Amino acid sequence: MYPESESHSPLLYKSYKQLILLGICLILMLSTGKATAAASGSTIDSVKPTTKPLKVLTSIKPLQLMVASLTAGTRTDIQVLLPPTASPHHYAMKPSDRVAVSDADLILWVGPGLEGFLSKVLGSKPDSNVMALLPKSIEADHDHDHDHDHDHDHDHDHDHDHDHDQALDPHVWLDPNQVRAALIRINDLLSELNPGEAALYKANLNRTLKALDTRLVTLKERLITAQKSARSKGFIVFHPAYDRWIRYFNLNQLGVVSIHPGQAPGAKHLAQLHQWIHSGKVTCVMIEPQYDAKRVQSMIREKAVPVVSVDPLGQSITVDGDGFLNFYETLAKGFEGCLTP
Ligand SMILES: [Zn+2]
Prior knowledge:
Number of strands: 8
Shape: globular
Structural class: alpha/beta
Oligomer: single chain
Bound molecules: zinc ion
Radius of gyration: 30 Å
Distance between the termini: 115 Å
Number of helices: 14
């Protein structure tokens, strides 16, 4: 018996050991299960960061189109703040806009020189979640002028002269070189905020830059041809939005209808406009869907100068991977049509 029991006791000891181990395993499995359930119940974000789409908010449509060219195939939600008929030069934020700003993971705007209405509210967002295409502006250096913009016309004039200074011209999305640089910066930010899809962003960036370069060569050829056929004639635009575009494509802009968008042109400026139209040098006048140009239209109709609507904000363009290229294509067509009516 003894030897037998002795021979049994190590077996019994082994099975006890197995039981204890099994018990420990069970306890461990149950406890980790509980921990996982607790974690997923309370902070789902920290457990699965990639299940939620990255929320990007842009101030204006062209910036939304730029982001969309980098996010095809990724789970990125791109919203735009301004409604289609609004101009960023004089927009007042709604309470829902503030909610959209606080909900966004990344906010893209031009800067205080264009969307001044965003300056304050963006101050509460971490720097890593905000990107300005043109961080500096004359308003940022002269806050006192900015405060009085709406009360005193002369202050407004002062600001605007500087606004359309070459380097500070806030219409950066109409400058192909600035767009190229911005796309690279946007890609970096998207990849930082959503590293899981960085390879897709990068592939989209490479495809977009290549397509943009190819398209720009074609657009340049076409616009040079259009300007050549217009000879020394040129066009008038509604407000000074296209200075960067015009420099890039070497186009002949003779003047603007409204130096300060949103304000009716003054008597002196209207007289100047009349003189331009009488000169026979104007191929066409461009108006914009964001501004009511009735007065200009009635003035121009008598003189039989064509009026075309060209949208510097691309509001009718579909938001997809090719949206920005389509926006530039539509703009170029508008200028071609205006130079060779
Ligand atoms: Zn503008």
